[in-house]
Structure formats: structure tokens, C-alpha cells
Design goal:
Blueprint lengths: L5 H10 L2 H21 L4 H11 L12 H22 L2 H4 L3 H27 L5 E4 L5 E5 L4 E5 L5 E3 L1
Antiparallel strand pairs: 1-2, 2-3, 3-4
Helix pairs in contact: 1-2, 2-3
Length: about 160
């Protein structure tokens, strides 16, 4: 690394594809963690700020394979949730059994009713109405139009 210009190093890392992007993210997160530690802040703040700085919408050193990084992030979340699921035991969940058994169906019914209501306000759905739940609200659409809308918290609709 001695004698290599920083711009040449960055150009080489960009040619490496997703491996170079991961290196950029890890180094940025490490530096962000060190800075957060110096200011006696939680490390997660440094990690988040570092990833924002190397994101695709900021200047300077940025990641190039946005889609691949997003896919890795989704896989990471799935593995994290799986690992958290392995940590729980039925003995630990027993005290909240009543809340879970009663609250989960209520939450599902209210979420579905809210999404159907939003769908009626936006497009007056008929029998060809499609609805799917996701983590941010829902996706609605009409089959005959071949078009889907993702509902946001407001009554707006983004076409997918």
C-alpha cells in the first residue's frame, strides 16, 4: 500500500465489485465507530453515519453496487431474525402468552382493515383487487391494469 495514490486505490476497489464495496463499508464503519467512541456516543451512531457517508447519494467515496448491497442487507436481516429466534425459549415466552395469543390476531385484522380502507380511498377496488402485507403498510393493485401501488403512511400511493 505504500506508494499507491489514494485515488488509484479507490479506483482499484471499485473494479473489485461487491468485494470492494464491502471493504469500503467495513472501513467506514470502523472509522465511524472510532469517532463515536471518542465522543462517548454509542457505536451504532458512528456506524450509521459512516454508512450514510459512503452511500450512493453522497459525494466522495461511495459504493457502486447498490442493488447487491441491498440484497446482502436483506439476507443479513433474515439471518439476524433467525438467530434471535434461536435465542428464545418457550419458558421465556410463557409470561406473555396471553398478550401474544390475543394481540396478534387483533393486529392482523386491524392491519388488513386499514389497508383495505386505504385501497378503497385510493382506487375503489373491486373483485380483481390484490392486497399483500409488508413491513411498511401494504401493497395493493388491480390485475386488469397490471399495476401495483405501495401504500405509505399518508394516503399517497407509489406505483411499483
Amino acid at each position: 500500500m505504500i506508494g499507491i495514490k489514494p485515488t488509484t486505490l479507490i479506483a482499484r476497489m471499485k473494479k473489485m465489485g461487491i468485494a470492494g464495496d464491502i471493504i469500503i463499508i467495513v472501513v467506514a464503519a470502523f472509522i465511524g465507530g472510532l469517532i463515536a467512541q471518542q465522543f462517548k456516543q454509542p457505536l451504532i451512531i458512528g456506524y450509521i453515519l459512516a454508512v450514510v457517508l459512503v452511500g450512493p447519494y453522497t459525494g466522495g467515496i461511495t459504493v457502486s453496487g447498490i442493488h447487491e448491497i441491498e440484497m446482502l442487507a436483506e439476507i443479513r436481516i433474515a439471518l439476524l431474525l433467525f438467530a434471535l429466534g434461536l435465542e428464545f425459549s418457550f419458558k421465556e415466552l410463557k409470561p406473555i402468552r396471553k398478550i401474544a395469543v390475543i394481540g396478534t390476531p387483533i393486529q392482523l385484522v386491524l392491519t388488513i382493515a386499514g389497508i383495505l380502507r386505504k385501497g378503497q380511498l385510493i382506487s375503489n377496488p373491486g373483485p380483481d383487487f390484490i392486497m399483500a402485507l409488508d413491513d411498511s403498510g401494504g401493497v395493493i393493485g388491480k390485475r386488469d391494469q397490471g399495476q401495483f401501488c405501495k401504500l405509505s403512511n399518508s394516503l399517497g400511493c407509489e406505483t411499483l
